[in-house]
Amino acid sequence: MPEYEVKIKFHIFPYRKFNIIATDDEEARRIAKIQAEHIINTLDFTIASIRTKRYLMDRFL
Hints:
single chain, alpha+beta, 1 helix, 28% helix, elongated
């Protein structure tokens, strides 16, 4: 099965600030973690290139 090299460009904002309303520190951390997971799951990206890795035939003999 061929292997591929893929270059991906992530569109990441360097800094994002959230205002969270919580009753205590533990709830604030839980809400912040949920927000961080949401950002990671919806991260925008562009595939810059896809190419097949090339091998020398001597490696297969």
